[in-house]
């Protein structure tokens, strides 16, 4: 009769509640390995699990009597994971990053300065003397080194030799030649060139036109303004005015132009070495030609590629540094290039016979000398996230939605005045 | 005539709906070159059944499956245990602050998970539960979705049934177990199905709450088959087929609870 | 013990209710309200580690930020389409498949397939279908001599809303199917005897008796529609430009790409307020519509 709980009910409820900790006790899995003394945790890109690196890891384990917990992620996932780690204070020992994070984390105090180690071991390992200057600069903050470049890539103009020969077109070296070549190559459902939907590909055009992403002295973005407008307009006109390039589709991958190239629907694309594999695999009959980076007011391409760094709270920085040293050795670079054709940041790497003998790798290696990191200055303001987001909007609104370049660049600068105060 | 129209409509709709399944199957049997080809390959020239074996060779995929089953299964059981009880209280009891508490409960669904993920992660790290099953399961033992669902399905049950049982001297818990639960079978089937499907596909929490490959669940494990600039779709698709099968089986098993007749006999 | 024993019957019911609720209250406090409280306090902070106090700065900034306003508008439009569509289509399919129809089990399974399939595969599938140059749809349209589409560029929001509907309609169908099981057959039979036609029976019997389910489906549809994320994340990456910059996608980028957790938290709190408001309106309307039988 009583609406109150009977004793039996209470017991049932209690046992249900007790089931939770019980479940936990039964499920007892090992505790977090980064807390284990014998484990050394490395975060890596899932696409960079090379045998060459596995070998280094095995040697490292042998030398230090540790077990390496090699955790592989996609870049966005790796970042999410890492930010959670920073918040909890339990961090991995070494992290690979896609470029730009080192300075970001150095500013926020989450990355460890490696300067002391560089001062000690730099001469022996050839750092910074054997690394291309751009790779040292983009991994430094306030005169201190925070990361070491692992891979160095850039983009080039790739072309379908058969198509160019058939149309009697020479590989273009300047913007004007590119426009002319693209016009001659566009026939039926074949486009002369295909542009990427990703705004990162705007970088080379802007740099070739002498544009800086950010000028710390005036706090202006995309300066000089006119040159930026001109560069954006040139790309948009390839698509909308001259119709020698298809309208890109906004998405999450960079493979659109490569697919058109592989399908013989585009004669030229601007891309990095990562597209060579898929082209070879899907269309082995295409003879790929490599043109040097284009010349606008100057000749330039963008520096990209990954670096390794050590989180500030890493518990054994000496061990972390040793890992960094081993994984960036010249012999390891050589092995990775042999294995997958990856491009590397050491100057002496470019001289290796493996590099010189492969026309594709050599073409990219030659272009690395002109590679620059356009976003470095804006990164040092700590506002790169907003800048990048706005750049994407601007790029896509001009290239895809055909908004007038002048208005879009003006809107972009207006937004920047807000967040760069 | 109307019936024919209905059949036609349903058939067309169903075909549009099973597209991804067929496409996923096709992808899972293609060579890597076929998956990369510009014009999507509809069906592979020679089906690559070896892709499935490769999953297990390249990663501890067996571990992924076990982890997914333990985590999604454990959470689903917890929901079936807790959600109906709480839903019952909100449906049939009058108590101070009931509506306020209910809205506060629903509010837990209105903050994107990733926003509260970092504080949750810090909490779990303090408990030492990172990379453990309890760390993967405990934050999801019940949720407002399930409670709200059960409340809505318990509400129409006549109050007279409850009063009658009270007069017969049944305890409150017995009323819940003997009177309420048996009448909510369709809802329990839905709750179990959706909780399992949701947790089975959950990505973000298992991503941050595991620190070794062996503790990953299938969706997190599948990201191992992505390269830096492209995805190994043949392996991702094969893994997705494996991911799909248990949820489909669960639906086929539970859907009979939504068939008119069977549910009603449960009442008597 | 006797001191604690409540005097009135209603007080006793209340005590029972709270006893039943106790585990839930503890659970939600630890795993939801504590982290959410943390989100609220983070919303008052700034900096990449969210460790500098900013007062209400993030809120005033968010209210004045055109990008935030834009993302809320985009989300509103998206949610409107998805909520209305999933209720109407889900209910329609559930009604159709609640009848003794040959092959209805197969139909039900097939209609739920998109909901059960991995989001990554669904994203890839639709990008492969809708790609203007190489997509299956345009190749087919071209072969038939029909004009080609560029939907992901010309009406991106509508396109991802349609894909979302396609994926979630099976899920609302299942909820409505379960709800229909709660309506006793006798009601329909009685109405049939009274000579009510199918249309009448739907409006006068099915719909009112389905009210609890409908309330659930619509409240949940609004909650999830306003927090949609996956399609923008997987298919369009928020573009072209900012055409599909859904609110939660925007917040995700602010939090994890731009690393401004304070600002992201403030935007989440604003979004929470909006969703609570919508939910309260729906619950109030639902209470009026609920029937007792």
Beginning-to-end CA distance, first to last residue of chain B:
37 Å
Order of strands side by side in the largest beta sheet of chain C? 1-2
Biggest interface goes to: B-C, 88 and 93 residues
Query: Count of helical segments of chain B?
Result: 15
Radius of gyration of chain B, in angstroms, nearest whole number = 23 Å
Fourth-level CATH superfamily of chain C: MetI-like
Order of helices and strands of chain C: HEEHHHHHHHHHHHHH
Written overview of the protein:
The complex is a heterotrimer of chains A (421), B (268) and C (293). Chain A has 421 residues and is of the alpha/beta class. Helix content of chain A is 48%, strand content 14%. Chain A folds into two domains: 36-153 and 304-372, 3-Layer(aba) Sandwich (D-Maltodextrin-Binding Protein, domain 2); 156-302 and 383-419, D-Maltodextrin-Binding Protein, domain 2, CATH 3.40.190.10. In chain A, helix 11 packs parallel to helix 12. In chain A, 50% of the residues are buried. Chain B has two domains: 1-48, no CATH class; 59-265, Orthogonal Bundle (MetI-like fold). Chain B has helices at residues 2-28, 32-36, 50-58, 61-92, 98-107, 113-127, 133-137, 144-154, 159-167, 172-183, 185-201, 204-209, 218-222, 233-254, 262-265. In chain B, helix 1 packs across helix 14, helix 4 (61-92) crosses helix 8 and helix 9 (159-167) packs antiparallel against helix 10 (172-183). Chain C is mostly helical. In chain C, 75% of the residues lie in helices and 1% in strands. Chain C has helices at 9-42, 57-64, 66-97, 104-116, 119-130, 136-143, 151-154, 156-181, 185-193, 198-209, 211-225, 230-236, 247-257, 261-289, and strands at residues 45-46, 52-53. A two-stranded antiparallel sheet of chain C has the order 1-2. In chain C, helix 8 (156-181) packs antiparallel against helix 11 (211-225). Chains in contact: A-B, A-C, B-C. At the B-C interface, helix 1, helix 4, helix 5, helix 6 and helix 8 of B face helix 1, helix 3, helix 4, helix 5 and helix 8 of C.
Features:
heterotrimer; A: 421 residues; alpha/beta; D-Maltodextrin-Binding Protein, domain 2; 2 domains; 5-stranded mixed sheet; 4-stranded mixed sheet; 20 helices; disordered N terminus; B: 268 residues; mainly alpha; MetI-like fold; 15 helices; globular; disordered C terminus
